[in-house]
Amino acid sequence: MGRVTPSMKVPTVISYKWVRKIFWYDDINGGLKRKDNPTKRVTYSDARGYIKRRISYLYSRHKYYEHRLVYLFHNKDMDQTLVVDHINGIRNDNRIENLRLVTHQENNFNTYKAVGFSWSKDSKKNPWLSHIMVNGRQINLGWYNNKLDARASYLRGKKKYHKIEER
């Protein structure tokens, strides 16, 4: 295999054996260290706070998310079409006990920006609408006269609809 040209596709599936050959897992801090240079940790943080590792694979240099590499390091039969989720929401906490494999939709359940309610000027009596997204559809959970009741309704709906199955 020769030099990789820009027209060649970046490999999205990474070999378990390759990850095990290059890295060892840091049990104390989490994350990976290179076997050939364990003191130097060449990482990059993207704009969203995820740690990326720039490494050579199949004669080309690419950046891979460290949390995906850590999960693959511990799970030989990882389904690489799924998403690796940080359970506590801290994007640079790559300890294996903080990572789980989920679908894209289940990963969106973990978002901290969702408030689950909105205000409508059309309804004078109950201006607060509580709603939740499930399978790409918005489900209305009811109209409320104050913000706290609408938020409580959203949290009840979250327990009911946003279930993450064990894998």
Give the arrangement of secondary structure elements:
Layout: H1 16-22, E1 23-25, E2 32-34, E3 43-45, E4 51-57, E5 60-65, H2 66-74, E6 83-86, E7 99-102, H3 104-109, E8 117-119, E9 128-134, E10 137-144, H4 147-161
Antiparallel strand pairs: 1-2, 3-4, 4-5, 6-7, 8-9, 9-10
Query: How do the helices and strands follow one another from N- to C-terminus?
Result: HEEEEEHEEHEEEH
Low-confidence stretches at least 5 residues in length (pLDDT < 50)? 4-8
Number of strands: 10
Largest sheet: 3 strands, antiparallel
The secondary structure category is alpha+beta
Strand content: 25-35%
State the end-to-end distance: 37 Å
Q: What is the rounded Rg?
A: 21 Å
Helix content: 10-25%
The side-by-side strand order for the widest beta sheet comes to 3-4-5
Q: Quickly count the helices.
A: 4
Question: Mean pLDDT, rounded to whole units?
Answer: 83
Please tell me what the overall shape is. Answer: elongated
What's this, in brief?
It contains 4 helices and 10 strands, in the order αβββββαββαβββα.
Structural features, described:
The chain is an alpha+beta fold and 167 residues long. Helix content is 22%, strand content 29%. It is built from four helices and ten strands; from the N terminus they run αβββββαββαβββα. The strands form four sheets. Strands 3-4-5 form a three-stranded antiparallel sheet. The chain has a three-stranded antiparallel sheet with strand order 8-9-10, with helices on one face. A two-stranded antiparallel sheet has the order 1-2. A hairpin with a 2-residue loop joins β9 and β10 (137-144). The protein is elongated, with a radius of gyration of 21 Å. The protein starts with 15 loop residues before the first helix and ends in a 6-residue tail after the last helix. Mean pLDDT is 83; it is low at 4-8.
